[in-house]
Amino acid sequence: MSVTHEAHRASETGKPPRRPPRRPSRRATETRAGYAFLAPWLLGFIALTAGPMVASAYLAFTDYHPIRGGSWIGLENFEKLFDDSRYLESVEVTLKYAIIGTPIKLAAALGVAMLLNNRRRGQGSYRSLFYAPSLIGASVSIAIVWRAMFNDEGIVDGIGQTFGMEAGGWIGNPDLTMPMMILLAVWQFGAPMVIFLAGLKQIPNELYEAAQVDGAGAWRRFRQITLPMLSPVLFFNLVLETIHSFQVFASAFIISRGTGGPANSTLFYTLYLYESGFGPRGQLGYAAAMAWLLVIAVGVLTLIFFRTSRYWVFYAGESR
């Protein structure tokens, strides 16, 4: 029916003409489609991230047991933490691992990245070979293999005895368990190596050529060109690897068989958190308090990194 006929009919009946139904605009359609695609992530975030975070924040102020339930006790869990010698040992072990292991891992990643930055035959194969351990990650299978290599009958102990080291394995020696854990972390330097390699590709060769003409040696070129130009990438890797060092769990759990031994030398923070919440004691409230202290500590440390980065991180186009 035409619009003119519809208007004439409306004038005869005294009713206003019917308007054709409005089609939704393209923007509205795209908005609804966007929310539809976003809905699974939002539901997952609420159910798997935000919900557990709110629940753990509540549990941190309760004396909660999975079977007996719990009651509100306020800040008592946080006060007991600082009187818990085992908790303080877990903090010490984790800090030692982060302070020693993270710089060594980053140095190894940067060194290998600089070697791979030069064009050579089979370069892609070398990159894949060095990156492969990071694909495996801190899996249970790798931890089992690592334990078999470093126990009293492992290949590492056999090689060490040929060089005069005492028998007994690294796992049973409290003085060697931390170097063993750091070695496992350094072995998986593939991820920061790839990021360093991408940053090295962005440094203009003209800078090195000009410095070489001025008589700058390899160390001077590294110190005055490579490090300043690579400082944003170094900062990124430093923040990520520091956070990862506070999250060590699977390897420590498998290697120590969940005990944190010997002599609490592998009692990492997350391992004691798991033991407190899901061990025989079942102190979920106590474990939740530990978890929130870890979140706060990592947040404060990250904030310190960002605040101090202005003194040593240099971005292109900035005047210093």
Instruction: Determine the CATH topology of the largest domain.
Output: MetI-like fold
Backbone CA Rg: 29 Å
Tertiary shape: globular
CATH superfamily of the largest domain, please?
Answer: MetI-like
Question: Largest sheet, described in full?
Answer: none
**Level-1 CATH class name of the largest domain:** Mainly Alpha
> How much helicity do the residues have?
55-70%
Quick check: average pLDDT?
A: 85
**What's the SSE pattern?**
HHHHHHHHHHHHHH
Low-confidence parts lasting 5 or more residues at pLDDT below 50? Answer: none
Strand content: under 5%
In the residues, how many domains can be counted? 2
Structural overview:
This protein is mostly helical. The chain has two domains: 3-59, no CATH class; 83-311, MetI-like fold (Orthogonal Bundle), CATH 1.10.3720. 69% of the residues lie in helices and 0% in strands. It has 14 helices and no strands. It has helices at residues 3-13, 26-59, 76-81, 85-117, 123-136, 140-150, 155-162, 174-187, 190-201, 205-213, 218-245, 250-255, 269-278, 284-308. Helix 4 runs antiparallel to helix 11. The model has no long low-confidence stretch (mean pLDDT 85).
